[in-house]
Design a protein that fits this description.
By secondary structure, the chain is an alpha/beta fold. It is about 35% helix and about 15% strand. The protein has a single domain, classed as Aconitase, domain 4, CATH 3.20.19. A 7-stranded mixed sheet has the order 4-3-2-1-5-6-7. α7 crosses α8.
């Protein structure tokens, strides 16, 4: 994994990707403005494989799919939070962004900590502090969606298998 970037409670979709940048859907454009209103330096400093750590109700606000897409486009490996807004949770899974609900980890991990997540088991390791936390692992069908790269990719792959078996 990578370095943790910690944010507080009620980080809404406007903080994740401000509405003023929604005139494009280009991944690089979204990545360049990811988390800009929460931390103006985030997009310039975050690295591929890093992890966002949020508090309660992460992703609240509008139902825009651009929010998890911006996080994914920025190369972040996962989001760990105390809890999620339901639409953000579903939008994240739909595009293949791994997200984990683990209040203990979300409260304990700090910005800069080296964090590793086992996607299959939900085990979160804070390598900086030498601690481990157990998130509820995603059900197998959700893990399949993430592994496929999102719901659309999974459907296309299934259709391709069905066509070749016909």
């Amino acid at each position: 994994m990578g370095k943790a970037w910690k944010f507080g409670d009620n980080i809404d979709t406007d903080a994740i990707i401000p509405a003023r940048y929604l005139n494009q859907t280009d991944a690089a454009h979204l990545a360049a403005h990811c988390m800009e209103d929460a931390d103006p330096e985030f997009a310039a400093r975050a690295q591929a494989g890093d992890v966002i750590v949020g508090g309660r109700n992460f992703g609240c606000g509008s139902s825009r799919e651009h929010a998890p897409a911006a996080i994914q486009a920025a190369g972040l490996a996962a989001v760990i939070a105390e809890s999620y807004a339901r639409i953000f949770f579903r939008n994240s899974l739909n595009i293949g962004l791994p997200i984990y609900e683990c209040p203990e980890a979300a409260r304990a991990i700090e910005t800069g900590d080296e964090v590793e997540v086992d996607f299959a088991t939900g085990l979160i390791r804070d390598k900086t502090r030498g601690t481990e936390y157990q998130a509820r692992p995603l059900p197998p069908f959700m893990q399949e969606i993430i592994a496929a790269g999102g719901l659309i990719a999974q459907i296309r792959a299934r259709r391709g298998k069905e066509s070749s078996n016909a």
